[in-house]
Amino acid sequence: MRYSESHKQETRNKVLKAAAAAVRAKGPDGLAVADVMAEAGLTHGGFYAHFPSKEALVVAALEEAFDQSRRRFARLTQGMANSEALAAFVDAYVSMEHRARREMGCPITALSSDLPRQPQAVRDAFDTGVRAMIGRLAAWLADDVAPVQREGLAVSLLAEMAGAVTLSRALSDDQLAEQLLSECRRRIKARMGLTEDKPQ
Prior knowledge:
Blueprint: H1 5-30, H2 33-39, H3 54-77, H4 82-93, H5 96-100, H6 107-111, H7 120-140, H8 147-170, H9 174-191
Helix pairs in contact: 1-2, 1-3, 3-7, 7-8, 8-9
C-alpha cells in the first residue's frame, strides 16, 4: 500500500515528538530507536523510511525539542510587552515545574553535559538551538540596553537560568532545590530590572 505524503509527514512528526522527549529524558546515547518507534506506535522496521541513521534522528529530535520550547514560550508570552515576556519566561524557566519535567523542558538544561561526546552534526544542531534562544532573549531586553551589549547580556542570562535549573536537578533535597530556584529567579529579575527589588 502506498501512503500519501501527508501521511508520511504525520508519521515522521509522531516519531519526532517521541524522539524529542526521549533525547531529553535519556540523552543522545540513551535514545533507543526501537523504543522511539514503539512510542510512536510504529515498528522498528519502518525507521529507515524516515531517517538514514540514528545520528540523523538525534539531530532532528534536537531541532524538534528546541522548536517545542520556542512554541511553548511563544504561547506563554503572546501579546506581552518585552519586559512582561522576559519576566514570564524567567518565572517559567527557573521553576520547580521545569526541574521536574526534563523530558518536556529546555534541551539546554537536559543535554548540556552530553553534547561534548556527540558527533559534529548533533553539536551543530544544539548550537543552532542555543543561538536562537539567545536571540529571543536579546529581543526582550529593555530598550536602554545598547545594541553592542544585548547579545552578551542575553548569553549571561541564559547561562544563569540554565545553570540554576541544571543544579537544582542534581539536588536530591526538594526543599533546597526550591530555595535555589526561588533565589535565582528573584535575583535574575532584580538584575534585569523586572521587579522593584534592588540587585544584590
